[in-house]
Specification:
Blueprint: E1 9-19, H1 25-35, E2 39-44, E3 50-57, H2 58-71, E4 77-88, E5 97-99
Length: 101
């Protein structure tokens, strides 16, 4: 995704690898998503990663992806963040951001 309109609605799925469970990663992820007006969901997996889907403006998703890839919650150690299934949206599929179990 190149130099498109930063207000364009986009969506992407993510998976975060590393020591990312047991450090309130999903809670902090939800709080940041709500601050950035991003919709979607996040959850822990059985294999120790965090997965989710985020939707919002390209500019806000760029900020969220940076957090998912490099910062995360206090005490976590992110190895990498894989992104897949980028989509352009005409409208959001979700109306809030939730933690799934």
């Amino acid at each position: 995704m190149g130099a498109e309109d930063p207000n364009m609605l986009v969506a992407v799925e993510f998976e975060v690898f590393g020591q990312v469970q047991g450090c309130y990663f999903t809670k902090y992820c939800k709080e940041l998503a709500e601050q950035l007006q991003i919709c979607g969901w996040v959850k822990n997996t059985k294999n120790g990663t965090i997965v989710g889907k985020v939707q919002g403006t390209k500019a806000n998703l760029d900020h969220m992806i940076d957090w998912l890839s490099t910062k995360g919650s206090p005490g976590c150690k992110i190895e990498k963040c894989d992104l897949r299934n980028w989509q352009y949206l005409s409208r959001l599929d979700y109306n809030n951001f939730g933690i799934r179990f």
